[in-house]
Design goal:
266 residues, D-amino Acid Aminotransferase, Chain A, domain 1, 7 helices, alpha+beta, 14 strands, 2 domains, D-amino Acid Aminotransferase, Chain A, domain 2
C-alpha cells in the first residue's frame, strides 16, 4: 500500500521494492516487473484523472499536521498479490493474481495529529512480520477491547520488547535521542524516511526497545503511509512526557512535510 501527494506517488521505488521482497517471502511469483507495475500505476492515475495538482489548486506546502483525505490529488494505491486459483483450495496456483487499485484515503480526526492518540498494549508478535500482508486478525479481534479502553491503536509488545502497532511503526524519544525497534517488525517506508531525516538533527538508535522504556521516555509517535507521523501521548495508563505533543515530534513532522514538498512537486 502506498499513497500519492498532489497526485504524485510518494517513494514508489521503495514501496515496490518492499512489495517484491514480500512476494519472495511468501514464495509468490510476481506476474509483472517493477517497471511494468509502475507503468500500470501511472496509467491508472491518469485514467482516474489523478495528476499532479497545479499551483493554483493547492496550498504552497503541506501543513505541519497532515490529514488523510480532503485534498485533491491525495489517494491510496493498493497492490494485492494472491496465490491465484488453487486446484485444492489450499496451495498457491502456478499463476498468481495481481490487483492494483486506486482508492480514497481514509479520514482520521484532525485531533489525532494536533493532540496525539492513546495506544493499548497487547502481548503479541506478528507471524512473518517482515512480509506486508493483509492479515489483521489480531487487530480485528482486539477492536472492541481497544475501543473500550478508548485507545486509537494497539501497541504490540513481546517478551518485554516493544515491536510495532497494528499497521504502523513505533518511535520514542529519550530527550533528543530517537529510538525505534530493529527486529520482528515490518520495515515501513515512512519509518525509513523518518530515520534518515532524523539523523540530521537527533541521535538515532535502531535497536531492541524495552517495554519499560515507556515509563521514562519524553515523547512518542507512530508512522505509517496514510497518516505520516501521528503523535502518541498515552500508552495504557502511562502518560508520555507531559501528556502533550512534544517539540521534537513537531520538528520531525515539519521535516517530513518538507520531504513531501520536495519530492511531490506539481
Amino acid at each position: 500500500y502506498m499513497r500519492t501527494y498532489r497526485g504524485a506517488p510518494f517513494r514508489i521505488n521503495d514501496y515496490l521494492s518492499r512489495f517484491e521482497n514480500s512476494a519472495k517471502g511468501m514464495k509468490l511469483r510476481l506476474p509483472l516487473s517493477r517497471k511494468e507495475i509502475a507503468s500500470v500505476i501511472n496509467t491508472l492515475l491518469k485514467k482516474n484523472n489523478i495528476r499532479p495538482s497545479p499551483k493554483d489548486e493547492r496550498s504552497n506546502s503541506y501543513p505541519a499536521t497532515l490529514r488523510a483525505g480532503g485534498r485533491a490529488g491525495d489517494f491510496g494505491i493498493r497492490l494485492l498479490l494472491t496465490g491465484g486459483y488453487s486446484l485444492d483450495s489450499y496451495l498457491p496456483a502456478a499463476k498468481p493474481n495481481l490487483f492494483i487499485l486506486i482508492e480514497e484515503l481514509p479520514e482520521y480526526p484532525a485531533g489525532w495529529s494536533e493532540k496525539g492518540i492513546k495506544l493499548m498494549v497487547h502481548e503479541h508478535g506478528r507471524e512473518m512480520p517482515h512480509v506486508k500482508t493483509i492479515n489483521y486478525l489480531t487487530a480485528i479481534h482486539l477492536a472492541d477491547v481497544r475501543r473500550k479502553h478508548k485507545a486509537q491503536d494497539t501497541l504490540y509488545c513481546y517478551n518485554g520488547k516493544i515491536l510495532e502497532t497494528t499497521r504502523n511503526n513505533f518511535f520514542l524519544f529519550h530527550g533528543d535521542v530517537l529510538v525505534t525497534s530493529k527486529n520482528s517488525i515490518l520495515q515501513g517506508i515512512t519509518r525509513k524516511v523518518i530515520v534518515n531525516i532524523a539523523d540530521k538533527k537527533f541521535r538515532v538508535e535502531v535497536r531492541d526497545v524495552l517495554k519499560e522504556e515507556l515509563n521514562c521516555c519524553t515523547e512518542s509517535f507512530i508512522t505509517g503511509t496514510t497518516r505520516g507521523i501521528t503523535p502518541v501521548v498515552q500508552v495504557d495508563t502511562i502518560k508520555i512526557g507531559n501528556g502533550k505533543v512534544g517539540k521534537n515530534t513537531k520538528e520531525l513532522i515539519k521535516m517530513f512535510n518538507e520531504v513531501i514538498n520536495q519530492e511531490c512537486k506539481p
